[in-house]
Specification:
The protein has 948 residues and is α/β, with parallel strands linked by helices. The protein is built from 39 helices and 24 strands. Strands 1-2-3-4-5-6-7-8 form an 8-stranded parallel beta barrel, surrounded by 9 helices. The chain has a 6-stranded mixed sheet with strand order 19-20-24-23-21-22, sandwiched between helices. Strands 9-18-17-15-16 form a 5-stranded mixed sheet, sandwiched between helices. Strand 5, helix 9 and strand 6 form a beta-alpha-beta unit. The longest helix is centred in the middle third of the chain and has 35 residues. The N and C termini lie far apart (97 Å).
Amino acid sequence: MNPVKALENHGQAVWLDFLARGFVAKGDLKQLIDTDGVKGVTSNPSIFEKAIGSSDEYDGAIGSALKKGDRPVAELFEHLAIEDIRNAADVLRPVYDQLRGEDGFVSLEVSPYLAMDTKGTIAEAERLWKDVGRNNLMVKVPATPEGLPAIQHLIGKGISINITLLFSQKVYVQVAEAYLAGLEKLVKSGGDPSRVASVASFFVSRIDSAVDKELDEKIARANDPTEKARLGALKGKVAIANAKMAYQDYKRLFSGARWDKLAAKGAKPQRLLWASTGTKNKDYSDVLYVEELIGPNTINTVPPATLDAFRDHGTPRDSLEENIEDARRVLSELEKSGISLDAIAAELVRDGVRLFADAADKLYGAVAHKRASVLGAGIDRQQLKLGSTIAKAVEKATEEWRASAKIRRLWQHDKSVWSGSDEHKWLGWLNSAEAADIADYEDYAQRVKGQNFTDAVVLGMGGSSLGPEVLAETFAKQPGFPKLHVLDSTDPAQVRTLQASVNLANTVFIVSSKSGGTSEPNAMKDYFFARVSETIGADKAGHRFIAVTDPGSSLEKVATRQGFARIFHGDPSIGGRYSVLSPFGLVPAATAGIDVRTLIQHTLAMVRSCGPDVPPHENPGVQLGLALGLAGLEGRDKVTILSSAKVADFGAWAEQLIAESTGKEGKGLIPIDGEPLGDPALYGKDRFFIDIRTEGEDDAAHDAKLSALETAGHPVVRIVMKSIHHIGQEFFRFEMATAVAGAVLGINPFNQPDVEDAKIKTRELTTAFEKTGKLPAEKPVISTAGADLYTDDRNAADLRKAGADGDLGSWLKAHLARAGADDYVALLAYIERDSAHIDSLQAMRLAVRDKRHVATCAEFGPRFLHSTGQAYKGGPDSGVFLQITADDDKDLAVPGQKASFGVIKAAQARGDFDVLTERGRRALRVHLKGDLASGLKLLDAAITEALN
């Protein structure tokens, strides 16, 4: 007789520790049921990983599932697993029916990531039970301390449970007690215990592997031949002895008055299932853990190889209750040898949880890879060419992040991923795209369209303005919707230019400020509210204003008082620079008629690709973040962003995100935006390049330069977007990458400790103006016909020592000469940001880059104060700063304030400069007199002369 089939005669059921789609579909499982009497199937992440990751068997099913809509990787796997489990359960259903629910089960494991989470285990087990919808399902729950209360709860809810990772007799008793208590709870609530089944999966071979290792170490140290022999005689015996004693506990626990009472209600005993029965030591019989553990009302779950071996040469016998006293002696001898079986069992549980989590990582990685392949261009492509040193560091960090579950912990808001301060309070951005109320945005957009506005203007700073600016610059004006503008300056000329570019009578203004206390948007709002009141009447002005702000802010109060048409609430757990996929970006998008539904739909594809269930090696946001952070630690901290024409403004948003998030505590990444690509000889070893473009924006000359940079050893990241409609994917990718880079750098990427200092200085100056009608006097270090120069005493002394004397050129020469290898030069211009002035600054920065071979920044104030200003003041001391101020041709009053726009801007420039010098930064301010265009030409000529 077939030895496997013969096990039935000894009261033991055989389950198969294997499951795959084709195995069920082709009838192989049915054949084993018929020929071997197999009565159940167990699965685990390792089994599914081998089935999904090692073949193309599931590719069609993954493709079919994704055609119905994208989904997170864990959900995609679960969809596949549930289908397999249902199919296997249906094949086993005749066994279940024939044996009246005594057998015929298929087991599906809760996520191993939940092994230490009671509530999470309960929630997932209840959901799986419902979703699979088969009475012959068993949900697998580990016998961890957190798993035990979950087991009792689930049994009490009438859910059949397979308890896994059970190694210890003591824990087995606790498992059985949890089952009994759960049944009693079920009966008390009026449930039917006859419909519930449970097995306790007692692991075997792993015990011997661990014990034999310790025995070998003791044998090697023992000098007495008798002791060596005694220890050697225990090898390969402990696991079976341990299991036999657990079976004695089983007989005791499922007899007596307590059990009889439950049995009378129809309860079934919780059978012991021998797991991990494949022999791992080649010196032992390959059927050892089957032959020696045969007994009534037990199960042996075997891998296919062990099943084949037992069928071939197994010998069934009633072995489980043989030599019980010898089993006790073996365990006693082990204890006498100083080896703690309880300690080994506890370590095996921890190791089992880790191994199952490792297998789940591989499984989800395989599913993520196949998902990405199916979606293809639906997910923007990313290619990292990092050079061997950084690539090896990223590879090492990727494994460290995986082993320590950092991406899952990040999504779980675990602040220990970073500095352990308040990071957990600032992670609302992770879910902002998913939380978007698309129907409300669409309804709002139609209301805007119905008003026939010609223009829409965002009044905001930093995160409130830079994201909307990317949208305004990237998307063309939509038919029937207003043209989107952004104002993020207190420069009077820039305010006046914006006013002249719109039809005030037909413009909607979006006042955007998280706290409501930011001075610039408040001044801009006061100015334009007064202008609109003059144009259409004070009683109607409020209807032309929208507020986007956090609940309870001062802006909300003002908006309510002034009768704003709508107030959108931001999420207080999202910082400004991470807010573009929240109302701060989506309200301007909807106002401009950008298809928010499509934007969010594409964004969510990247959110899922960067999700908690996507291991670091398949997670594009994590990979980019590790590369950025580790390159920064290697000294390549000048993140040079190269944006193609269609997404030219993306770098302005990204530089704020990167600089304000990472530049603090003397550490950080310095983003370089808008610097055209040059030859490799122009760059030092401090560069990290990110090239971002849309599909079809091919530029052979540009690509040749990128390839030359790679050849020269510079790290280069290439990102190709399917189209501009994928811009949300890049917002999220960069947010995730920046958060990860912050973790690598060991800082809190969600605070901005140095921004407030400049605000305080500015308030002190404007307060002085309010009192006296003028800003405090200041004395230049030199004054010429075209410009005055300012700096602090320390900088002045250093510059004079380096040759600065009575003319502008000598000071600039001495100042720019301070920029050495790995430094950067930043031009900080408090002037109108228009195309002519952008071109002027670009000419100056490129002259510096090309002569000094250093990274350069060209920024406009006060805009950059809410962007890169944090890194300039709090980041690495590698900046050489040239602040540019000028006389305003014509100032502009702010309603209700003594301080005009020009005065506010001047106070901001001086406040910022004071903080730079107080921090010991290398800073020089040049104040241009008279006509600005002439002054910029003068400065350009002086810089050229200084460099030559």
